[in-house]
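G., the chain you wanted modeled:
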Amino acid sequence: MKNTIFTGAAVAIITPFLEDGSIDFDGFGTNIDAQIENGTDAIVVCGTTGESSTMTDEEHRECIRYCVERTAHRVPVIAGTGSNDTHYAVELSQEAEKLGADGLLLVTPYYNKTTQAGLYEHFKAIADSVSIPSILYNIPGRTGMSIAVDTVSRLADHPNIAAIKEASGNISYTAQVAAACGDRIDIYSGNDDMIVPIMSLGGKGVISVLSNILPRETHEITQLCLDNDFQAAGVLQLKYLDLINSLFCEVNPIPVKEAMNRLGMAAGPCRMPLTRMGDKAAERLCGSMQKLGML
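Predicted structure as tokens:
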């Protein structure tokens, strides 16, 4: 059995931007502190929700550095360093390790994609180049390809591949990975609406968008699962389901940034091509938040 990077709820933290498009590092620091103070178990920086795809290389590295320094070992920091260019992913992963990241999040190659053999070699090359653990990121809706169960099982034998973030929305796939890999790889839910189902199959937690606005509550759902109180966890999962769905009624992270801005948190605009939330979608989101007494 490998060492687990974290259990519970990791926030897929947003990157706050100022109106001129630059990164709001003061706001970023405030958000990091608030997450830790409210029970978040780990921070995932420069992921999908962090809009890493629109960051320059310098911004990407600076965000990782800042997050590591601000977190100051209070919780693990997992850096998104995946790419569709294996050489660049290796380079960025090595830099994240030097900057002090506790782990890496590695998305499947997108646009050019690859074969399953290519996926194996891609992830292996990155894992071979570092000494910190990696989390595979399976999100076919974004990248256009999925990691086959057999490929996950092969990669699970690598000492530096510790987990998979499963965001396909297919619970059958999760069950097959759990059955094939056992304790050779940890599983994290990549979808907030599937925390309890995935943890009931042995998952160790979630990498969460919801945690940006409800860190304590998201942690509580995962903690109840870890305590084997799945009935109580299910009640909370359903309590927040409408809000979770509203947070994905437009492309992530448009809705969560809208929610944070309305709550007076540091978020700011998204970077193009992501645009301001539409009025009907914003009305739906606000309605979900009002039902929970958040607004």
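The chain has a mean pLDDT of 97.

Shout if anything looks off.
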